[in-house]
């Protein structure tokens, strides 16, 4: 019996998540697990702005970025023979990932590996997901090549 049957891979479409996507797909292949790729359009960024044409076009850009991000995971999954369901949602990334964790056995996600003041000021989605998720979380730090 497989320990992990459903793996959640949150992605923001950046280079920093590629290492986590690779590890998540590798684990899924070994375990015979299904993968859900999740991108969350962060609505908290827009909450204090009036919905004019500029905000709408930024939002559309983020939505397209989300579709591209989850499509990347699907394509990489297909290369390794792993079934990937792609989901793009709106809301708070931490809240949506934690909600999705209820239906998964493992979350595999990337981190920038911030330290010091930037971590204090910016916070960390990965750190809060680790704290509140309903399943284990594997955090994969971006390699030096990816973070430069």
Characterization of this structure:
With 148 residues, this protein is an alpha/beta fold. Helix content is 47%, strand content 22%. The chain is built from six helices and five strands, in the order βαβαβαβααβα. A five-stranded parallel beta sheet has the order 3-2-1-4-5, sandwiched between helices. Helix 1 (18-31) packs across helix 2 (53-80) and helix 3 (93-101) packs parallel to helix 5. It is globular and about 50 Å long.
Number of strands: 5
Question: In terms of per-residue confidence, which ranges show pLDDT below 50 for 5 or more consecutive residues?
Answer: none
Mean pLDDT: 85
CATH architecture: 3-Layer(aba) Sandwich
Query: Could you spell the SSE succession in H and E letters?
Result: EHEHEHEHHEH
Number of domains: 1
Q: What attributes characterize this protein structure?
A:
148 residues; alpha/beta; Rossmann fold; five-stranded parallel sheet; 6 helices; 5 strands; 47% helix; globular
Summarize the SSE layout with pairings:
Elements: E1 6-10, H1 18-31, E2 34-42, H2 53-80, E3 84-91, H3 93-101, E4 106-111, H4 116-122, H5 125-132, E5 137-141, H6 144-147
Parallel strand pairs: 1-2, 1-4, 2-3, 4-5
Helix pairs in contact: 1-2, 3-5
């Amino acid at each position: 019996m497989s320990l992990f049957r459903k793996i959640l891979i949150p992605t923001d479409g950046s280079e920093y998540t590629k290492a986590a996507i690779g590890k998540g797909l590798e684990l899924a292949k070994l375990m015979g697990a299904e993968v859900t790729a999740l991108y969350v359009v962060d609505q908290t960024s827009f909450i204090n702005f009036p919905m004019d044409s500029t905000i709408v076009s930024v939002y559309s850009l983020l939505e397209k970025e989300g579709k591209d991000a989850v499509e990347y995971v699907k394509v990489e999954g297909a290369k390794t023979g792993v079934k990937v369901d792609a989901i793009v949602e709106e809301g708070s990334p931490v809240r949506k990932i934690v909600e999705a964790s209820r239906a998964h056995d493992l979350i595999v996600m990337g981190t920038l590996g911030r330290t010091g003041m930037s971590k204090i000021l910016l916070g960390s989605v990965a750190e809060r997901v680790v704290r509140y998720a309903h399943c284990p979380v594997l955090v994969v730090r971006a390699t030096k090549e990816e973070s430069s």
